[in-house]
Design brief:
Blueprint: H1 4-20, H2 25-34, H3 40-64, H4 70-93, H5 99-121, H6 123-135, H7 139-160, H8 166-175, H9 181-205, H10 211-231, H11 237-256
Helix pairs in contact: 1-10, 2-3, 2-11, 3-7, 3-9, 3-10, 4-7, 4-9, 5-11, 6-8, 7-8, 8-9
Length: 257
């Protein structure tokens, strides 16, 4: 049945996503594991389908505004979809819902959160340092790097549900410095839809999705995202970004430890 506490978590995460634009996986999965005590497999699987539903709405909005570069989406997906499928096959062949495997997944999730925190906190410095080197590359090489980025995200998202947002966006800013940020954001969100849907369906077939939890999260997240988006312009990014990055780093360290 619908659980009000899970819906409240959906509201809070939705608000933060609306305020910061950071993917819900970086926030929701550790919340489900640390606060509500779900097995990492269930948290990851449920969060993936949750993300595919919420980001589908975002893709429609960006698509109507013309802020999706489908060339970039195709390049990312050509790497991420095969990588996600291979990762899911590997998970299906392993006994990955045991306590021991859960510990491994928790450690990987913690490491992903720490890297995400670094990407959020130092995004501008990372882009300023690396973008000039990539801007001189020809289109074919940029395309290959984008496919490789997609493959990395496919593995990471399938294992942890983290990475498609903050990490993917930082890498896209490095690879495509001449493309408007809004268009890269739209492309990143559009690519996350097939990736999280395929990975989520894979987890569903393995029995690591909680249907009532998913419904509870969606009920809360929709108004949360709307509210967060409405007040985003009134909250200073200089305050939000460091707080979010530090929070993710602390949670990541706790999970790794």
């Amino acid at each position: 049945m619908i659980h009000p506490l899970y819906s409240l978590a959906g509201v809070l995460v939705g608000m933060l996503v609306g305020l910061t634009g950071v993917g819900g996986g970086s926030l929701m999965t550790p919340l489900l594991v640390l606060i509500f005590g779900f097995h990492p497999a269930t948290a990851v699987g449920t969060d993936l389908l949750y993300a595919s539903a919420t980001k589908s709405v975002g893709t429609v909005v960006h698509g109507r505004h013309g802020s999706v570069d489908w060339r970039i989406v195709r390049r990312l997906a050509s790497g991420s979809v095969p990588a996600a499928l291979l990762t899911l096959v590997a998970l299906a062949l392993s006994d990955w819902q045991t306590a021991g495997t859960g510990h491994v997944l928790t450690t990987i999730l913690g490491a992903a959160l720490i890297v995400t925190a670094v990407a959020i906190f130092f995004r501008h410095r990372i882009v300023d340092r690396l973008a000039p080197a990539f801007s001189s590359l020809d289109e074919a090489k940029i395309g290959r790097f984008t496919v490789l980025l997609g493959a990395v995200l496919g593995v990471l998202v399938s294992l942890t549900s983290v990475g498609a947002g903050a990490l993917g966006m930082t890498a896209l800013l490095v690879l495509y410095p001449k493309i408007p940020v809004a268009r890269l954001v739209g492309s990143d969100i559009a690519h996350a839809v097939p990736l999280t849907l395929i990975a989520g369906l894979g987890h569903l077939t393995m029995g690591s999705v909680d249907g009532w939890l998913l419904a509870s999260l969606l009920i809360g997240s929709i108004p949360g995202i709307i509210l967060g988006s409405m007040i985003a312009s009134r909250v200073s990014e200089r305050v939000l970004v460091p707080v979010l990055a530090i929070t993710l780093a602390i949670v990541g360290i706790k999970l790794v430890g």
